[in-house]
Design goal:
single chain; about 325 residues; 5-stranded antiparallel β-sheet; 10 helices; 15 strands; binds biotin
């Protein structure tokens, strides 16, 4: 006997119904709603169990117990508190780079707020041509399409803003003291746990789309990092000593960033200054910043309203747009 075919949208609808209920849902109700036999309903429930949903079957009823921490469109949508961010969601098991997929979608007209996620990336990209280590099931690999109505000059500020949103998200979900290392690396316990890669598609002074790529090391253990990253990288789990629900971090980031982005569109980073000051990792530190052949050394005084780093070079404050920062011991 062949087992009845499972229709995934039907399984999703069943899951929504069971999850929304405070108690047990009779199998007969699912049969009626979907015009299926009891055997068919049970096959759909078995499919959900295979996807790691914990459901309790008892006396011809089914009760929801728990959901897996998977970055599926269904899980991302469930309990998402945003108006636009994440409302259109392309969730992949494997992608080369979610930023590349998001850029393609943006070129094909995808609306603002569309997100692309992956459980793993095979060619995750970082800033300055580096790669982003993206092992399966442990991190958040997310790209968000924005279509801001401001000139391309304001895009670097948006990148800093994303860093502020990631830092705040980590603080609120985990209570960890996260810091933003300008322009947009997030540090916990002196090590990097998240990075941001912002890419711009613009023409004749107009932005078509900004792709905001966010990578967060969430549940990596030491062994999940390659040797060359172990000293400088960490994860929320390593810093906290327990696992963290990726979905909670992702949803909170989308909620926080959506609010901050609306505020940033109305002005600049001015209203974020107190927050920026609180979370600034480099403030008061002696650093060297390199951009191409140029190299400058000084003490960081903060970040200005456009997101530029304020560097005190022997008493002269210079506002720096971009570069690679290293801290002088
Ligand atoms: C960095 O710190 O160098 C930036 C890392 C950005 C990584 C994210 S993961 C999701 C998105 N897709 C990519 O290929 N890169 C970004």
């Amino acid at each position: 006997m062949t087992s009845p075919a499972v229709d995934i949208p039907t399984a999703d609808q069943m899951l929504r119904r069971i999850r929304a209920s405070n108690g047990a849902v009779p199998l007969a109700e699912l049969q009626r709603t979907h015009n299926l036999t009891q055997v068919d309903v049970l096959s759909h429930l078995a499919y959900l169990a295979d996807c790691d949903y914990k459901l309790r079957l008892r006396r011809d009823t089914v009760t929801f117990q728990s959901a897996p921490d998977l970055l599926t469109a269904l899980e991302i949508e469930h309990g998402l508190k945003t108006a636009r961010f994440g409302r259109v969601c392309h969730a992949y098991q494997t992608a080369k780079s979610t930023n590349d997929l998001a850029m393609q979608l943006a070129e094909n007209g995808a609306p603002e707020g569309t997100i692309v996620t992956a459980e793993q990336q095979t060619k995750g990209r970082g800033r300055l041509g580096r790669s982003w280590h993206s092992p399966a099931g442990l991190g958040i690999y997310l790209s968000l399409i924005l279509r801001p109505d401001f000139p391309p000059e304001r895009a670097p500020g948006l990148s800093v803003l994303t860093g502020i949103a990631v830092t705040e998200t980590i603080r609120s979900v985990t209570n960890l003291e996260a810091f933003l290392k300008w322009p947009n690396d997030v540090y916990v316990g002196g090590k990097k746990c998240a990075g941001i890669l912002t890419e711009l598609s613009a023409e004749r002074g107009r932005i078509h789309a900004v792709i905001v790529g966010v990578g967060i090391n969430v549940n990596h253990g030491v062994a999940h990092f390659p040797d060359n990253l172990r000293r400088q990288a960490t994860s929320l789990r390593r810093a906290l000593g327990r696992k963290v629900t990726r979905i909670a971090v992702l949803q909170e980031f989308l909620r926080t960033f959506e609010k901050m982005y609306a505020r940033y569109q109305r002005s600049d980073l001015r209203s974020f200054a107190p927050l920026c000051k609180k979370i600034c990792y480099l403030r008061g530190r002696q650093i060297v910043i390199s951009a191409g052949a140029e190299r400058r050394e000084g003490i960081v005084r903060g970040v200005d309203d456009s997101g530029r780093l304020l560097l005190d070079c022997n008493g002269m404050i210079q506002a720096i747009n971009a570069g690679d920062v290293s801290i002088v011991k």
